[in-house]
Design brief:
The chain has helices at about 10-15, 15-20, 20-40, 45-55, 60-80, 105-115, 120-125, 125-140, 140-145, 150-165, and strands spanning about 90, 95. The protein is mainly α and about 170 residues long.
Amino acid sequence: MEGHDGIHTERAANKLFKTMYDVELVLRFFAYRQKHDLHTKSLESYFDRFLEQGNYLNQEVLDNLASFFNRTIDLAFDLFEEQAFQLYREHKGKWAWFDRATVAVYDPMMLVLSQHLDKREILLSQKELINSEIEEFYKENYAAFGGRNVNELALKTREDLLEIFIQRFF
């Protein structure tokens, strides 16, 4: 069923679609991959500049980037399923999965997985083990992932921790 403006009602009702958060996540993926080289001011202004420059890319480059993003996010969901970008955290004295995705996990997880797409089959063969150990990983590294800190050191620390964790499985 379509609304009066031609957008499917289901999609129009989706909060991610309405706020363009889904678009922001794709932008974050590509911008985050180059942030250590290009990020000089606030993360928000960096994302704005990155998007502005991305508007000049040709269709072939855009198609290749789309494929790269899709392969990465497919690996994340194939490996971690619904908890792909959720944080295992302490809340009111109990450890549990946060009920929604968080960019503190999304950004470094997508970066690390994108760098290991060639290890997809190896990682998937270790899926059960990886998922059995990820809760302990978040417990041990909660200080790095639990806050909203987005300074360069905090971002790099999350990446490094996830890189070490993922590398254990190949």
